[in-house]
Fold this protein.
Amino acid sequence: MLRQDINELLTRTGPGTPMGELFRQYWIPACLAEELPEDDCPPIRLKLLSERLIAFRDSYGRYGLIDEFCAHRGASLWFGRNEEGGLRCPYHGWKYDVTGQCVEVPSEADNSSFCQNVKLTAYPLVKIGDILWTYMGDPAGKPPLPEFEFALVPPEQTYTSKRLQQCNWLQAFEGGIDSSHVTFLHSGGLKNDPLFKGAKGNEYNQKDTKPFFEVVDSDGGLYVGARRNAEDGKYYWRITPWVMPSFTMVPPRGDHPIHGHFWIPIDDENCWVYSFDYHPVRALTAAERQAMIEGNGVHSENIPGTYRPVANRDNDYLMDREKQRTGEYYSGVKGIAIQDASLQESMGPIADRTKERLVPADAGIIKARQKLRKAAIALRDHGTTPPGVDPAHHRVRSAAVVLPHAEAFLEAVKDDVRVKPGEPIASV
């Protein structure tokens, strides 16, 4: 079990909280590039780390992320007119550029310098891959841009989606480093999902329900190794990298694309899940991309015009008890992403970890909590830069391998869990 004060520290991410300040040391996904598709398109509302913001793309293609509310009377700039290089509040015409600087106050005299002294909180917004990334910390400490492989391969080799999850970021993230649930919750997907089925590794998942976990520190976070029995005195290893604060990669299956996630706090009771698929040496096939669009693999089918899943807590995730009984869907819920979300949301907005009873298979979760807590306290008390900020920490891969019993997994796969541009992944 976890003490309540530690649970509070790990789950609260608003301004001034230790974990909120930790997240503000990193470039994090703010939205998908598709949400701002062209110059002067409508702005979008965003809430990140409990801050209400507006994202927009101006007449010159520049991206801005600024305080949602006009400095004059507090009207929401979501209603703003995106025109001529800035966002104009429709209430009284005050206009702001992508840096949050007020550039026009129509009621003031032409020679007035009033607007020069009005500036909204603003954060940088940069497109890398399919994502617009932001850094919400001290500008003096802004780190280099992220270098995750999925965002740097050619566009035809990658796909990213986004969905709302109605629970705290931590309980959602913890599912990403928990390999033991796959044998149960996702057993139907291993047989039927077009982005999972057919891999030899699926057989090992299904035959051995008692994985042994070994967790090793990395420069940016952890490597979580899950070991299952294979043939001929060998083990099947699935290695999940975690890069702080909330990036994980699912170990690969056959020649399917590699999956992964970011869990980004909206506030303390909701988060965005950014899910990606990419292949480092080939384009995604039309069938693979269509499967992702339709919500297969780690993606979700969303309500049109939104990023909320069609299957959600208001409709009991469209649970089908008959398909649960037959085993087509082990939990009765369709789709790997929604299977995870349904159970993580069922824990409540913020899980009460004082009631938990953890077991050895939870070793990755235990170590991750310890590492997050240590990093947040070191940042708060000593200003120590946390792991995962350095782009060198981003250049990791997941791996799936079969090894002799005597081989230590990380030593055997040390080259496989590093990005090697243009080279294939280690997969079974």
